[in-house]
């Protein structure tokens, strides 16, 4: 259960203040797929960075399963990033000299998963996203864009986080592959019982979500 | 439980760091080669420095604890200057730490004063040594200028056996081949003659010759293995003073000091005591003067050593900076995945250390291989035309042994440099010569230098890593 209240983030730039996120409040249930639509520069990535504790809000609170993120110390924030949240990026951002399985295991390592279980868990996740044994041995450069994003999804879900933040996960993929990736996110969200926030500017993809929001100049509104 | 996890994750971070070292093979080779060159240079400089230091110490240790006094302007046995007074010289015994003073009077017997004939043919050495020329350093100064013949040198000394040793007097060590030495207090008309003089004049123990119109009896014959010395005559000091009408005169004195450490001070005191009348030189001072080119080699190698370590550190530092900047996004991803800074930093430290170890290993081997030619090049370049060049080449002590410029590998001196000696058994000649100098201290230095270099490189990487904001990963370029 994710509960966000009155979130504000302003960037002070040379050209003046940019109110990237303004007074954002919303809730999302476990296993729910939430789409956030918005034009470029509307504040989508900034909102995700606040939710993933990659950055701190100026004001407001984020509560995830009863934990107030504002109360976490530096070690607690690191632990939150490793165990309670998973990221899927537009550019995939896999580590290039690690193979698919090693990329997934990296997330398990940072989440302090028992060493003996890491291989099984990584293989299980790679199976769920549809990558076979031979693909698991390949480095990112030897995988297609869609396959790389599947590895990224496996990595994001590996440590069983409550929240998955996907920033334009289909942005670098062709339409058909993008559709498959969103269907995959939808499916894994349900089976892994995680809340998935997908940022996109593609209406068709947004249609697959349980709920839709639109963000404009940092202000978030639900679309019914 | 958390401890176990931490340990496990740092092991993985180190493993990733080592793997990352080989991520870009062209860069890996480049960085390692440059590091290796810098480390090789510093290692070879260290070895050169060791060798030179060794040489300097050997030479210093072999210098005597004596001070030579001669009249101002007096040049060896060639004459010149006003003789010193025996009473003044004896007074030197009151200087602290002076244990003995041994005087001698050098005189020349021209053919009108003696029945002896010099074994040295005038033609062969005259030109080379300035015989026949007039002036302070010429043999011919006191001889007749029309019918020139080599004069015979007579040394008045109370300690036959040490009187003519040393470069200024012609060199060599006297050894009696027949007869016996006269007593130190003798005032008799006796002489010990050099072997070549004896054979030229057909002298045996018991024979006699004339000098200053006095009959002198030969009591012994010596051999010093030196042409000049073996052509001379040793007689009691007071006999020479009496016969040559040089009562109380001395042309050279050797002052013995109780310890090497006191030579410099005693040298100053003797010079002060004798004032402008005498030239005072300690063997130590002469040695120091001849060692000065070696000392500059030592200085050059020290600067190059420090310079190349700093150079290596800068190379690694810049490489690590470049690598971290290039992987800025990746560092952001690791942070977003929940990697603690500690883990990311240890990953980069492992990479920097791997570079350094590779550079150090290659550099160590190359450094040892090139240290010999470098040492000899440095030494011969700085020796130049000075006497040190010859001095160094002649020396058989440990440390030198480079090929190419005439050094003889003094293998004998190498055998026992202690437990810390590397033995590259079965390697080429060059290695055998060098293993002596590459002791544990060299390896220790390489290790410390490498740690300093790696630490610097890592520190720069760490500082940059900490400043990378994970939110940057979400920004599309
Ligand atoms: N670190 C930052 N410094 C300054 N301005 C920023 C920073 N991050 C984002 N912004 C600005 O905030 C606004 C929202 O950016 P972002 O959240 O990346 O938008 P979106 O992801 O919807 O394209 C933009 O105007 C952007 O320029
Ligand atoms: Mg964005």
Explain what the structure shows.
The complex is a heterodimer of chains A (224) and B (477). Chain A is an alpha/beta fold and 224 residues long. Chain A has one domain: 3-Layer(aba) Sandwich (Rossmann fold). Chain A has eight helices and ten strands. Chain A has helices spanning 44-51, 74-83, 100-110, 115-128, 133-136, 145-158, 175-192, 203-206; strands spanning 2-13, 16-28, 33-37, 59-64, 67-68, 85-88, 163-167, 195-200, 211-216, 219-223. Chain A has a six-stranded mixed β-sheet, with helices on both faces. A four-stranded antiparallel β-sheet of chain A has the order 2-1-4-5, with helices on one face. The longest helix of chain A has 18 residues, at 175-192. The two termini of chain A are 21 Å apart. The model of chain A has no long low-confidence stretch (mean pLDDT 94). Chain B is built from 13 helices and twelve strands. In chain B, helix 2 (25-62) crosses helix 10. Chain B is an alpha+beta fold. Chain B starts with a helix and ends in a 10-residue tail after the last helix. In chain B, the strands form two sheets. In chain B, strands 1, 3, 4, 5, 6, 7, 8, 9, 11 and 12 form a ten-stranded mixed β-sheet that branches. Chain B folds into two domains: 4-58 and 291-385 and 434-476, no CATH class; 84-250, no CATH class. The radius of gyration of chain B is 34 Å and the shape is rod-shaped. The A-B interface holds A 45, 48-49, 52, 54-55, 75, 78-83, 87, 89-91, 93, 95-98, 106-107, 109-112, 115, 155, 167-168, 171 and B 2, 5, 8-9, 12, 16, 19-20, 23, 329-330, 333-340, 343, 469-471, 473-476. Bound molecules: adenosine-5'-diphosphate and magnesium ion. The site of magnesium ion has 3 residues of chain A, from helix 1. The site of magnesium ion (MG) has 3 residues of chain A, from helix 1.
């Amino acid at each position: 259960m994710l509960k966000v209240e009155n979130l504000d983030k302003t960037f002070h730039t040379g050209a003046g203040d940019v109110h990237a996120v303004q007074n954002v409040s919303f809730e999302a249930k476990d296993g729910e797929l939430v789409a956030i639509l918005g034009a470029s520069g509307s504040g989508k990535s900034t909102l995700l960075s606040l939710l993933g504790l990659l950055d701190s809000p100026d004001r407001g609170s984020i509560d995830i399963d009863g934990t107030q993120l504002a109360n976490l110390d530096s070690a607690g924030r690191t632990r939150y990033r490793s165990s309670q949240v998973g990221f899927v990026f537009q550019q995939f951002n896999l580590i290039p000299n690690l193979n698919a399985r090693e990329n997934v295991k990296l997330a398990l390592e940072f989440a302090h998963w028992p060493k003996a279980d890491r291989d099984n868990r990584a293989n299980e996740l790679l199976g769920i996203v549809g990558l076979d044994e031979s693909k698991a041995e390949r480095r990112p450069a030897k995988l297609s864009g869609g396959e790389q994003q599947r590895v990224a999804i496996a990595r994001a879900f590996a440590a069983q986080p409550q929240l998955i933040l996907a920033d334009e996960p289909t942005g670098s993929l062709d339409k058909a592959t993008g559709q498959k990736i969103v269907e995959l996110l939808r499916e894994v969200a349900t089976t892994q019982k995680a809340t998935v926030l997908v940022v996109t500017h593609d209406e068709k993809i947004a249609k697959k979500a349980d709920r839709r929001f639109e963000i404009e100049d940092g202000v978030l509104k639900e679309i019914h | 439980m958390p401890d176990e996890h931490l340990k496990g994750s740092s092991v993985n971070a180190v493993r990733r760091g080592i793997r990352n070292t080989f991520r870009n093979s062209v860069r890996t080779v480049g960085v390692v080669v440059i590091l290796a060159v810098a480390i090789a240079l510093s290692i070879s400089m260290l070895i050169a420095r060791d060798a030179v230091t060794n040489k300097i110490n050997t030479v210093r240790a072999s210098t005597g604890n004596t001070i030579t006094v001669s009249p101002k302007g007096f040049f060896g046995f060639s004459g010149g200057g006003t003789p010193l007074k025996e009473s003044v010289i004896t007074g030197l015994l009151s200087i602290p730490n002076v244990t003995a003073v041994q005087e001698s009077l050098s005189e020349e017997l021209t053919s009108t004063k003696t029945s002896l004939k010099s074994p040295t043919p005038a033609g062969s050495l005259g030109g080379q040594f300035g015989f026949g020329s007039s002036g302070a350093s010429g043999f011919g100064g006191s001889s007749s200028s029309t019918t020139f013949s080599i004069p015979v040198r007579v040394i008045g000394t109370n300690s036959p056996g040490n009187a003519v040793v040393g470069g200024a007097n012609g060199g060599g060590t006297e050894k009696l081949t027949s007869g016996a030495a006269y007593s130190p207090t003798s005032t008799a008309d006796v002489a010990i003659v050099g072997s070549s003089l004896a054979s030229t004049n057909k002298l045996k123990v018991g024979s006699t010759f004339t000098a200053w119109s006095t009959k002198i009896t030969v009591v012994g014959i010596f051999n010093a293995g030196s042409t000049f010395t073996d052509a001379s005559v040793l007689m009691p000091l007071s006999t020479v003073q009496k016969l040559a009408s040089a009562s109380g005169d001395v042309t050279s004195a050797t002052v013995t000091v109780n310890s090497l450490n006191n030579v410099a001070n005693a040298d100053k005191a003797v010079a002060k005591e004798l004032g402008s009348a005498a030239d005072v030189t300690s063997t130590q001072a002469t040695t120091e003067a001849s060692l000065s080119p070696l000392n500059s080699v030592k200085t050059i190698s020290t600067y190059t050593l420090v310079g190349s370590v700093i150079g290596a550190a800068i190379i690694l530092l810049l490489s690590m900076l470049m690598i971290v900047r290039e992987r800025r996004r990746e560092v952001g991803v690791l942070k977003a995945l929940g990697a603690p800074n500690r883990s990311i930093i240890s990953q980069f430290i492992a990479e920097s250390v791997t570079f350094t170890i590779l550079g150090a290993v290659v550099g160590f081997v190359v450094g040892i291989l090139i240290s010999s030619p470098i040492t000899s090049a440095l030494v011969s370049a700085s020796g130049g035309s000075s006497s040190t060049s010859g001095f160094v080449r002649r020396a058989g002590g440990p440390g030198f042994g480079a090929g190419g410029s005439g050094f003889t590998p003094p293998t004998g001196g190498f055998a026992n440099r202690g437990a810390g000696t590397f033995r590259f058994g079965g390697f080429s000649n060059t290695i055998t010569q060098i293993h002596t100098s590459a002791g544990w201290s060299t390896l220790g230095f390489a290790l410390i230098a490498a740690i300093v270099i790696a630490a610097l490189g890592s520190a720069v990487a760490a500082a940059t890593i900490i400043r990378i904001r994970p939110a940057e990963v979400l920004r599309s370029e």
